[in-house]
Design a protein that fits this description.
Oligomer: single chain
Shape: globular
Distance between the termini: 22 Å
Structural class: mainly alpha
Number of strands: 2
Radius of gyration: 17 Å
Mean pLDDT: 92
Length: 163
């Protein structure tokens, strides 16, 4: 028997996703369209591999199932390997992320978890050593944007489609 907050199954069938609380595109269309524009702008000049790693990692930290699913799918479509995606929570203990990717992942954690020490100088300095100023500005914009999307997804209970 599998138990969740709302559903119990005895046959191993998938548990239905929680019901979405509200639909932002319909109820706040101007805001939603602005977020799409911000999202598009935040990705400019960011290596697509790093962009998807950042989005998946922040989404894992924030527990946004919709965004994890979406960005892991996008990453795979861009050639990302599963072993790298599934090891993002333990990226420090793996040998397969580059120095730039590590700096981006560390900055992602610091920006996402602001209440746990803000962005330490060492984290920022390492990112600044790996990215020029324009790249670093875009990376921070990307991290801030995925965190905004995660907060929308989690608070409205957006769920990935059944597969």
């Amino acid at each position: 028997m599998t138990t969740t907050n709302e559903t119990v199954t005895t046959n191993g069938a998938p548990v239905p996703a929680p019901q979405q609380r509200l639909a932002m595109p319909r109820l706040a269309p101007a805001y939603y369209q602005a977020m799409i524009a911000v999202d598009r702008a935040s990705r400019q000049g960011v290596d697509p591999v790093i962009a998807e790693l950042v989005k998946v990692h922040a989404s894992m930290i924030n527990g946004c199932a919709f965004c994890i699913d979406m960005h892991a799918t996008d990453a795979r479509e861009n050639g990302e390997q599963d072993h790298r995606l599934v090891s993002l929570p333990a990226w420090r203990e793996t040998p397969w992320f580059t120095a730039r990717e590590r700096a981006a992942l560390d900055l992602t954690e610091s920006v996402t978890l602001l209440t746990q020490g803000h962005v330490p100088d060492a984290v920022y300095d390492e990112a600044a050593a790996q990215f020029d100023e324009a790249e670093l500005a875009q990376l921070i914009a990307l991290i801030a944007t995925i965190n905004a999307w995660n907060r929308i997804g989690v608070s409205t209970r957006m769920s990935p489609a059944a597969k």
